[in-house]
Amino acid sequence: MSGGGLAVADRSQHVPVLLHRCLELLGPALADRPAVVLDATVGLGGHAAALLHAHPALTLIGLDRDPQAIRVATERLHPYSGRLHLVHAVYDELADVLASLGIQQLDGVLFDLGVSSLQLDAVERGFS
Ligand SMILES: C[S@@+](CC[C@H](N)C(=O)[O-])C[C@H]1O[C@@H](n2cnc3c(N)ncnc32)[C@H](O)[C@@H]1O
After folding, report:
1. Is the beta carbon of 68 within 6 A of some atom in ligand 1?
2. What CATH superfamily classification does 8-115 receive?
């Protein structure tokens, strides 16, 4: 653990806001086919984990501007590493990221805007 926050194992229990509603809304576009989703703010990987679990043929690209979030998401989403691309980038760069991965079409996009508990819980990051 670093920075006084929760350990990665604890963060893996974090359930994101509106998880069920996001799965419900994206579900029809992703079900039963090799769909591709961009999670533009992957954060602690809560939405990403649920989407990858719910849709076994799904490939997910996850971006975050926070390198610590990418580290936590990489560990949490390890079981899905064969269907996952995690990239440290701001979402303004999504066109470049998709081009570099050779992805020309997306079936779903998720922007969960804001900050995460990873950032709020660590006093030294200046949000407290
Ligand atoms: C509410 S959290 C996302 C939580 C995530 N959906 C989950 O399930 O854990 C928002 C995330 O957006 C990231 N973020 C903020 N501005 C960003 C930007 N311009 N580009 C990419 N990520 C950004 C933050 O670092 C934070 O991790």
Report:
1. no
2. Vaccinia Virus protein VP39 (3.40.50.150)
